[in-house]
Amino acid sequence: QVQLVESGGGLVQAGGSLRLSCAASGRSGFTYFMRWFRQAPGKEREFVASIDWSGGITYYADSVKGRFTISRDNAKKTVWLQMNSLKPEDAAVYYCHAENVGWGQGTQVTVSS
């Protein structure tokens, strides 16, 4: 059974950077279509970024385009979300999602102004 574990969240000042990781466990390969979502208190979970199995096709929400970068290493079974120029409105719990697998437990990102 595949499990996803996010890490890398924390407290950062506005304008700073964080790099989130999503690591998959289990014997299966790692060719899933992967997405990052986030959920702020009192708000619905929203799409942040996605990446296809090869890493060659990526999509971003308009709110993060140009600041966030999604990438992956299938041999390491890991997807990353590099977040630069963070804003207070980026604060949320960030979740990774793998197609046909499900969700990780989330990692908290807090951005101080």
Short description:
Helices cover 0% and strands 52% of the residues.
Description:
There is one protein chain. The strands form two sheets. Strands 2, 4, 5, 6, 9, 10 and 11 form a seven-stranded mixed sheet that branches. A hairpin with a 4-residue loop joins strand 7 (68-73) and strand 8 (78-83). The protein is 0% helix and 52% strand. By secondary structure, it is an all-beta fold. The protein contains no helices and eleven strands.
Topology (elements, then pairings):
Blueprint: E1 3-7, E2 10-13, E3 18-25, E4 34-39, E5 46-51, E6 58-60, E7 68-73, E8 78-83, E9 92-98, E10 102-103, E11 107-112
Parallel strand pairs: 2-11
Antiparallel strand pairs: 1-3, 3-8, 4-5, 4-9, 5-6, 7-8, 9-10, 9-11
The run of helices and strands is: EEEEEEEEEEE
Q: What's the total number of strands?
A: 11
Radius of gyration: 13 Å
Q: Please describe the biggest sheet, giving its number of strands, its sense, and whether it closes into a barrel.
A: 7 strands, mixed
Low-confidence stretches: none
Instruction: State the helical fraction.
Output: under 10%
